[in-house]
């Protein structure tokens, strides 16, 4: 075996440089409204400043849900890898072309400067492009109502009560909370759950709370609906079962999630613990029993009668003194000659 040994050459910064960008799809064909994952992988065997120019697509909807960094050995070389995970949600049936992703990297040059080339550029620009991809978007299967089309990986439906509804009394209220969750579907795709009106059981629904959360597998939607129920008469009330049809994208089968019917038994009885009205109270009505009346002071009631009597007695004494002084004045005027009695 002949082995040829040559001088060590500086690494090339041409097209053989170890910087790569790859774009892959988890599935090449999905149903409209369902989710699929797109993975963008950037690998670099040399230090570099990398910028990715992502292509914007009006359809499907694209959202990033995860990003991880790790190291990988490929072809005997250590690579630093950054992996981005996106969720694609197509809204139109047909074929969608995903344009390539462009990568621009600034790589430091390892060629030393010399007197002949003192202004040698220390960086080299490297451009990479991924391959273009095609996604086939399928319509809902035959026999599926488009208005009830809900593709997802998992759907759950459960309820919670603020108190035991079987011990409800007339006039009392109870709150029913219904949680509707779908893994692999947006909250906006979840249909509202309507409860029919029942005679003798008034319902006061609140605004639904809609939220989305994401994990490495996709986007998960949640819809929370709350309704307050108030019974106006005693009796037995049956809340009908609630159900929602959905399509299992994992097994490609139609499924249905159901919330069982609920029976509420309402008995007669006072529903409020508020204070009774003035016409329902026993004894005199005072400020202590009726807050609308002015409160009495802390002085005993007999003190007011004593003060009033003293004032009347004082007025009587003043009147007697005035009459006596007037009589003395008249006698004095009669004793002095040449005076006239004042009229």
Q: What would your notes on this structure say?
A:
10% of the residues lie in helices and 44% in strands. It has 343 residues and is mainly beta. The longest helix is centred in the C-terminal third of the chain and has 35 residues, at 301-335. It is elongated.
Secondary-structure topology with pairs:
Elements lengths: L18 E7 L3 E3 L4 E9 L3 E6 L7 E14 L2 E13 L4 E5 L3 E7 L14 E7 L3 E6 L12 E2 L1 E8 L6 E2 L3 E11 L17 E5 L3 E7 L2 E14 L3 E5 L2 E7 L4 E7 L2 E6 L33 H35 L8
Parallel strand pairs: 2-10, 11-19, 13-21
Antiparallel strand pairs: 1-3, 3-6, 4-8, 5-6, 7-10, 8-9, 12-14, 14-17, 15-17, 16-17, 18-21, 19-20
**Head-to-tail CA distance between termini:** 163 Å
Structural class assignment: mainly beta
Helix content: 10-25%
- What is the count of β-strands? 21
N to C succession of SSEs: EEEEEEEEEEEEEEEEEEEEEH
Short structural summary:
This protein is mainly beta and 343 residues long. It has one helix and 21 strands.
Task: Please describe the structure with a list of short key phrases separated by commas or semicolons.
343 residues, mainly beta, five-stranded antiparallel β-sheet, four-stranded antiparallel β-sheet
